[in-house]
């Protein structure tokens, strides 16, 4: 069965600090996708990034970067020079092929960035 | 660009009452989902649909029913509301491909007294 674990329930940092959100997954499939979503205080869920199981290249997008390591079944998310606007709940999700597009979500990590 | 629209946004019910949450998407997506979000528990799948006229149970389907009579609409019904169903409900949709991200509505905050 697939499972996503976000062990960090809450993280609090001061603005401009770097912060890494951990995501560990379990799956028996060799073909799968991983996703990160952001849920700001306003409540909507916004897609950030996806990565397939065959692509272990790290990705950087502005202040955001993602580190995917199949050897440790992890897909971690780093925010560099955090800002108050980064305060949100972040969810990691796993989708196995084919599975009607269903995703298994982690319980989320609440990030608070203080000014 | 409406995307996924949920109505209503807020609702308070008394135990035993019934209601229907409506989800509408304008992206011609095949797959649609209903989740509930409770504190510290992430998103849990209630029911989903892979196309017009189809529905299937998710992780926590008890106490809920769904219908997908039109491709763009996915309805979630509570026949006899219980306090345990107090939650934030999210609808999502995606293309008929397993590798695509889901597009979410803004959520419905439901309180059952």
Describe this structure in words.
- The complex is a heterodimer of chains A (115) and B (113).
- Chain A has no helices and 12 strands.
- Chain A has strands spanning 3-5, 10-14, 19-21, 24-26, 32-39, 46-52, 59-61, 64-69, 74-79, 88-96, 104-105, 109-114.
- In chain A, strands 2, 5, 6, 10, 11 and 12 form a 6-stranded mixed beta sheet that branches. A 4-stranded antiparallel beta sheet of chain A has the order 3-9-8-7, with no helix packed on it. A two-stranded antiparallel sheet of chain A has the order 1-4.
- In chain A, a hairpin with a 4-residue loop joins β8 and β9 (74-79).
- Chain A is globular and about 45 Å long.
- Chain B has strands spanning 4-7, 10-13, 19-25, 31-37, 43-49, 56-57, 64-67, 73-78, 87-94, 103-104, 108-112.
- Chain B is globular, with a radius of gyration of 13 Å.
- Chain B is mainly beta.
- Chain B is built from no helices and 11 strands.
- Chains A and B meet through β5, β6 and β10 of A and β5, β9 and β10 of B.
Give a short overview.
With 115 residues, chain A is mainly β. Chain A has strands spanning 3-5, 10-14, 19-21, 24-26, 32-39, 46-52, 59-61, 64-69, 74-79, 88-96, 104-105, 109-114. In chain A, strands 2, 5, 6, 10, 11 and 12 form a 6-stranded mixed sheet that branches. Chain A has a 4-stranded antiparallel sheet with strand order 3-9-8-7, with no helix packed on it. A two-stranded antiparallel sheet of chain A has the order 1-4.
Helix content of chain B: under 10%
The structural class of chain B is mainly beta
Rounded mean pLDDT of chain A is 92
Helix content of chain A: under 10%
Structural class of chain A, by secondary structure, is: mainly beta
Percentage of residues in DSSP E strands of chain B:
over 45%
Distance from N terminus to C terminus of chain A (CA atoms, Å) equals 41 Å
Unreliable runs of chain A? none
Strand/helix succession of chain A: EEEEEEEEEEEE
For the largest interface in this structure, which chains are involved and how many residues does each contribute?
Answer: A-B, 25 and 29 residues
Mean pLDDT of chain B: 94
Radius of gyration of chain A: 14 Å
């Amino acid at each position: 069965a697939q499972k996503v674990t976000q062990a960090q329930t809450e993280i609090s940092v001061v603005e401009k600090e770097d912060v890494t959100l951990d995501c560990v997954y379990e799956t028996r499939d060799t073909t799968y996708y991983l996703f990160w979503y952001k849920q700001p205080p306003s409540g909507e869920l916004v897609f950030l990034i996806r990565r397939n199981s065959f692509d272990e290249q790290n990705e950087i997008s502005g202040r955001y970067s993602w580190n995917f390591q199949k050897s440790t079944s992890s897909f971690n998310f780093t925010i560099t020079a955090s800002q108050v606007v980064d305060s949100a709940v972040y969810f990691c999700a796993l989708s196995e092929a084919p599975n009607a597009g269903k995703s298994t979500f982690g319980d989320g990590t609440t990030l608070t960035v203080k000014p | 660009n409406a995307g996924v629209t949920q109505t209503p946004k807020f609702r308070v019910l008394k135990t035993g009452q019934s209601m229907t949450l409506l989800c509408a998407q304008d992206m011609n997506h095949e797959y649609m989902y209903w989740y509930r979000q409770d504190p510290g528990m992430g998103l849990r799948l209630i029911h989903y649909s892979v196309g017009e006229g189809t529905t299937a149970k998710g992780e926590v389907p008890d106490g809920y029913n769904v219908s997908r009579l039109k491709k763009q609409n996915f309805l979630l019904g509570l026949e006899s509301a219980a306090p345990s169903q107090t939650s934030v409900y999210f609808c999502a949709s995606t293309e008929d491909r397993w590798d695509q991200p889901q597009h979410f509505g803004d959520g419905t905050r439901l309180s059952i007294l």
